Amino acid sequence: MSDCLFCKMVSGDIQPNVVYEDDDVLAFRDLNPQAPTHILVIPKRHISTLNDLEPGDEALMGNLVLTAARIAEKEGIAEAGYRTLLNCNAEAGQTVFHIHLHLLGGRPMGWPPG
Ligand code: 5GP
Ligand code: ZN
After folding, report:
1. Is residue 111 one of the residues assigned to a domain?
2. What is the pLDDT of residue 1?
């Protein structure tokens, strides 16, 4: 999608700080990190929100979670613990409308989230 920030990262028009890439998934450091480790894991295919997922997207979404777990290991936060989350639409605070899984770690996380 031409006017989507994260699609521009997938196409290379914008170059984020990439930590992992394969045929289906891109992971890069968040520009405004909320924890010592804050990485976004996105599908390369444009999907606006969780509400737009369809049957057939199971493997892709599983890939996002598995990728986050592997990155957590590499970042050295797997044992201490980390948080993964997907914001969907306004009340959850979604600001970029291309699905992205947040991987946050390196500090204790509060619960419930704000
Ligand atoms: P959301 O609020 O939609 O769940 O998360 C969007 C995330 O994208 C935010 O954490 C924000 O800091 C991050 N973000 C927004 N613009 C950019 C950018 O240009 N580069 C990178 N690396 N992250 C961005
Ligand atoms: Zn997009």
Report:
1. no
2. 78
Four-point Cα dihedral 44, 36, 86, 92, nearest 10:
-130
Contact 105, 81 (CB under 8 A): yes
**Active site (catalytic) residues:** 100
The predicted model scores a pTM of: 0.98
Tell me which residue has its CA closest to atom 4 in ligand 1.
Answer: 94
Residue 14 lies in a domain: yes
Nearest ligand to the CA atom of 15: 1
Counting every residue written for the chain, the total comes to 114
pLDDT digits (tens, 9 = 90+) for 16-56: 999 999 999 999 999 999 999 999 999 999 999 999 999 99
Which helix H or strand E contains 19, and what residues bound it? strand 18-21
Here the CATH number for the domain that contains residue 72 is 3.30.428.10
Mutation probe of ligand 1 site: the residue of 4, 11, 26, 30 with most atoms within 8 A of C-beta: 30
Query: Which of 31, 37, 88, 101 gets mutated to test ligand 1 (max ligand atoms within 8 A of its CB)?
Result: 31
Is residue 49 in a domain?
A: yes
